[in-house]
Amino acid sequence: MPKRKKYPRLPNGFGSIKYLGKNRKNPYGVYPPSDRVNEEGNYLYPKAICYTDDWYVGFAVLNAWRAGTYKPGDEFLFRAQRRACQTDLDDFCARILADHSAQFHTDLARKEHAPTFAQVYEDFYRWKFGEAKKKLSKQSRNSTRVAFKNSACLHDRIFRDLKLQDFQDCVNAGLKREKPLAEASLELIISLHHQMAKYALAHDICDRDYTQGLYMPDAAGDESGVPFTADELRILWDHKDDPVIEMALILVYSGWRIDEARHLDVDLENQSFTGGNKTKAGKYRTVPIHPLIFPLVRKRIKEYGCLLPVTPGTYRLKFHNVLSRLGISGDPIHTPHDCRHTFSALCEHYQVTENDRKRMMGHSFGSDITNKIYGHRTLPELRKEIEKIVKDLDG
Q1: Does residue 22 or residue 183 have the better pLDDT?
Q2: Residues of the chain with CATH 1.10.150.130
Q3: Any idea where the Tyr recombinase domain is (predicted)?
Q4: Nearest to 218 by CA among 365, 376, 388
Q5: Cα separation, 205 vs 54, whole angstroms
Q6: Separation CA 22–CA 4 (nearest Å)
Q7: What percent of the chain has pLDDT over 90?
Q8: HSE (CB half, 13 Å, CA atoms) of 47?
């Protein structure tokens, strides 16, 4: 049995041409270089550029792809050229390289002069905090710096070469650290990437905003916290006229994150909230406004035009100060996210169905395909569930 012919070894990072078996019409798969690894450290091969019947045709495709001139179907043109040079492979390869050399070197020169993520950040930071007309706070500066520091995996990458998955991998990496980043830190990373992409697009650094599909990983939604006790809830209700406590009660009886509350669509006529932008499962969900907090919601909309007229960071600071003044310390110290934990605890205590609790909190159904894909609940059905919750935890 004749041995299969050996072909030249391609350099690292060039791409690969793989023989997939003799029982295929086009047994050679042409693959771009892989820059992703799995948990075991092995490279993950991307989708093939094309499949062909000849290694040298694959070589031509790979060269064209690297030069940026390949279009789907070009392999048929290369196949015809290959047959025309059947007896002179050196001539065929020379023609391939000659056709794409100029474009390849132009592309190489572009990459050498294209700014990295870190360089774009420097220009963006100078523009945002120096040249822009609007003066921003010191907290905003610090948050931007922290988000950049937590994006270290992208610092040396060419910005225009970054795709959605690169940005998402950077966000996801924050959860894989020895000490995972908090949800607020991940949100800062996403916000920075959005802002930098818009800046780069406006300044012709890139041709497309690949950050549009960024989302908060599901695991980030499970920020640790401690629910308010029944006694602490009574203290909150006794001070419901305080604007900070008023907002806290709205969060306690709706389950929204403080970061989501600022951008909610409040429908007073149908008594519902719609919004959410942290995780795939939590996007664009609708939650009924509980009757206990409806007067508070209506009051804030009338006074401020929205639920949260300050930044989440400012609210967190006020929240801590007011709770300290009221003697509600908590162990550990309560945060606004504890309002969400309290809502979850109330749902459990008053036997709100588990599926509806997940829906209203924007939690994933995981491998439960039935509820994830086919579970549909109307606003009245959700209202019936949320109204099981009453004012006290005495049940």
Answers
A1: 22
A2: 117-214
A3: 223-387
A4: 365
A5: 38
A6: 10
A7: 39
A8: 0
Give the distance, in angstroms, between the CA of residue 353 and the centroid of all CA atoms in the same chain: 29
Res 131 pLDDT > 90:
no
Is 265:284 a contact under the CB 8 Å cutoff? no
Output phi, psi for 100, to 5 deg. Answer: -115, -5
263, amino acid identity: H
Evaluate if residue 215 carries a pLDDT over 50.
yes
Residues ≥6 apart with Cβ < 8 Å to 17: 7, 10, 28, 29, 30, 31, 55, 58, 59, 62
Span 172-190, average pLDDT: 83
Minimum mean pLDDT range among 142-156, 274-288, 334-348: 274-288
> In the 8-state DSSP scheme, what is residue 92?
H
Give the residue range(s) of CATH 1.10.443.30 domains in the chain. Answer: 230-386
- Highest mean pLDDT: which range of 68-82, 97-111, 217-231: 68-82
- Neighbour tally for 209: CB within 10 Å: 16
Compute how many other C-beta atoms are within 10 angstroms of the C-beta atom of residue 348.
12
Between 180 and 116, the more confident residue is 116
Q: What's the CATH architecture for 117-214?
A: Orthogonal Bundle (1.10)
For residue 169, CA distances in Å to 137, 165, 177, 186, 277 come to 29, 6, 13, 12, 18
pLDDT value of residue 351 = 92
Structure tokens at 63: 């060269």
Structure tokens at 91: 């001539």
Instruction: Please provide the size of the chain in residues.
Output: 395
Residue carrying the six token digits 């919750």: 389
The pairing of strands 272-275 and 285-288 is antiparallel
0.70 cut: is pTM over it? Answer: no
Class of domain 230-386: mainly alpha
Report whether 185 contacts 137 (CB < 8 A).
no
**Sheet (strand 285-288) strand order:** 265-267, 272-275, 285-288
Q: How far apart are CA 192 and CA 171, in angstroms?
A: 11
